[in-house]
Amino acid sequence: MKDLQKSRLNLIKDLTLGYIVFTIFLVLSYCLEMLDMEINEFLALLTFIWCGNILYYLVVRTDLNLKLKEPDLFMPMMIWSIFCVIAPTYFMTGPMRSIFVMNYFVVVIFGVFKLNLKQFITLTGFAVSVLGFVIVFYMKKHPNTIHIFNELLLWIVFSVTAISFALVCNNVSNLRQKLKEQKLSLMSAFSDIHKLSITDELTGVYNRRYMMDFMATKKLKVDKGVDEFIACIIDIDFFKKINDTYGHDVGDMVLKTFSNEINKLIRNGDCFARIGGEEFVLIISHINIDTARDVITRIMQRVRNLKFDGYPNLKITISVGMKAYEKGSSIEDLLKDIDVLLYKAKNTGRDKFITD
After folding, report:
1. Residue 122 near residue 78, CB atoms below 8 Å
2. So what's the pLDDT on residue 261?
3. Is 71 a residue whose pLDDT tops 90?
4. pTM, full prediction
5. Which string of DSSP letters, residue by residue, matches 202-259?
6. What is the rounded (10 degree) CA torsion for 85, 42, 59, 56?
7. Mean pLDDT over the full length of the chain
């Protein structure tokens, strides 16, 4: 919400710059006697024009706009700007009016990336109506000097041009929206591809590729003396027997249930990955070997208590090899060492962990 309000305030800054340029243009027109009005009328006109911008700023600055259905207030702001551009042409002669009224298109440019067709048509209808009223009132004030044909031609040309411009702006807006949707779709696709590249398809946990990259990053930190981590290789005991007894579908269910349970137990800074079959690697960060023993003990107890829907008699245990990474050693050596420790655990009764 704060970012949106900041964006709205930045838009007001852009509009303020536009109002300053427009004010300078009006002052020059008055000094060159292109505006048929007294000084007090001219100052009142400038005050009137700036009041809208100041009011818009105060509403956004005080967050009052957040209480409205459309907190952007973009359409009211556009309508006000169009009125401020066209209404002063009442004080101008025909030739000057035809030049000055072109400022309308500068205003509409601000809405190219924000408005839809209905809003563009609304703005166009408003602008055409305001110009029509200006011409009518001018005709009543100066019936003897006005060139009706020229004024009517101006109104027709402006109307046709404004409608065409609105259609073009709408096409640009639609194109931008399509490009935005395509960009989001592409980003989503890239995100999905990246996720597939680093996760195990069956269990949804990380795969071997991600695990190796994770360990490499941790290794750099430990080698610099700013971190420590424990590597564990986990094997589900007698998993082949589960497949042979219950079938591979049940085996897959066991892997998924086991993986989900371990993911619930580890922290965000840790890494749990499947490296093949029923073998997994757990990297526990910012922890020493004694604390890691407690962590693995809790995990093993939780695994013993796992329940599998439809198979109340199905129980599993795990064997674990565990070792702390030593500064200056290699990832390959660490993986070999914990693999040896795992096989010691499996060969000495399973359902246990062995550390270096």
Report:
1. no
2. 93
3. no
4. 0.58
5. TT-SB-HHHHHHHHHHHHHHHHTTS--EEEEEEEETTHHHHHHHH-HHHHHHHHHHHH
6. 20
7. 88
